[in-house]
Amino acid sequence: MKLSDTSRARAAWNRMGRVYDNLIHWLYERGDRTRAQRYASGLAQLLTKLGPEKRSIFAAECRSLVSEAEGNLQNAIKHREKEISLIRRLHRLARNTEGRDFAFRQYTHADLADRFAVLAMLHKENGDLNEAIDTLEKSKAYCRRHGIVFDEEPLLRDYQDESRGIEIVESNGHIAASRGTKRPPTTSASTAVHKLERQMGDVPMRDYQAQPA
Fold it and tell me: Which of the ends of the chain has fewer CB neighbours closer than 10 A, N or C?
């Protein structure tokens, strides 16, 4: 059964959302990779059931999370970059259309900045500090262009200091670890799934899907 078979699609999306939420909880909030891997396995199985929805923004995010939980940072980066690309494409396609407000409610400029931060921390974890800095600098420029607060200034400063060989010393005299701690994206899976459900048709949320260039 593919998720585009609408008779059971809604239940499948709900199940996918619940597994996603548990994966986010154990991977980011609790930092328990062992527990997270159990939910990653379940989410990976659900991803194999996708029909046309396999091209959706949500699916790209899920693939990144699964890869991260499994320790495959290269794949996690690839899928997170795909998610960012799809969000930017959604914004571009929706601009100057009647659906603009709806599209930007699904993924705001702040949501996209949040994804840049997660991507930067993945690059850092993968040993590519320069790419992490570059990603945060792009995010900072993006936030400036769209008039939103860049929340990752302390993280960017830490990475830049580390790149220059400057150690961060805490008040107790200990060398501090980086401030970078991955956190859940600002839009939860449950919210995303509910938005999908409201638009359910033969293919949920056409705007969430990658269209041919």
Answer: C
CA angle 69, 209, 114 (to 5 degrees): 50
pLDDT digits (tens, 9 = 90+) for 113-133: 999 999 999 999 999 999 999
Predicted TM-score (pTM) above 0.85:
no
Identify the residue whose tokens are 């199940």: 15
The rounded distance, in Å, linking the Cα atoms of 125 and 118 is 11
CA atoms within 13 A on the CB side of 21: 13
Supply the DSSP string of 34-52, one letter for each residue. HHHHHHHHHHHHHHTT-SG
Q: Using CA atoms, how far apart are residues 36 and 25, in angstroms rounded to an integer?
A: 8
Contact status, residue 35 vs residue 51, Cβ threshold 8 Å: no
Distance CA 88, CA 106 (A): 12
Instruction: Evaluate whether 31 touches 180 at the Cβ level (below 8 Å).
Output: no
User: At residue 189, what is the residue type?
Assistant: A
